[in-house]
Design a protein that fits this description.
With 109 residues, this protein is mainly beta. The protein has helices at 37-40, 97-108, and strands spanning 4-6, 10-11, 14-15, 20-27, 32-34, 44-49, 51-56, 61-65, 69-70, 77-81, 88-95. Helix content is 15%, strand content 46%. It is globular and about 35 Å long.
Length: 109
Amino acid sequence: MEGAGLDRLSFLGRPLPPAFELLVITLAPGRERPFRAAEWRDAIVVVERGEIELESVRGSRARFERGDVMCLTGFSLRALRNRGPGTAVLTVVRRGEVEARSACRTRRS
């Protein structure tokens, strides 16, 4: 996932457990980001600043603004787009890659 990874920042005033990671995604005005389902699997997404438009593969659109919380798993999306005048900032909390791989190996045992 593009964007700056941040070390153990607080989420709701508490440090994240080591099994999770916090990412910050920024999208400049007028820019769009192709949707890749694997990037957003099992993630909680918060619009911290600006607004984001989600476009489905069929062309329907939904707009989310500051304070909105999303889970993008299970949707057939084409892109995330910033139609607003300022930079949009998303925080993404998800299970860390190492932890996710370990959990998959454990389940197969």
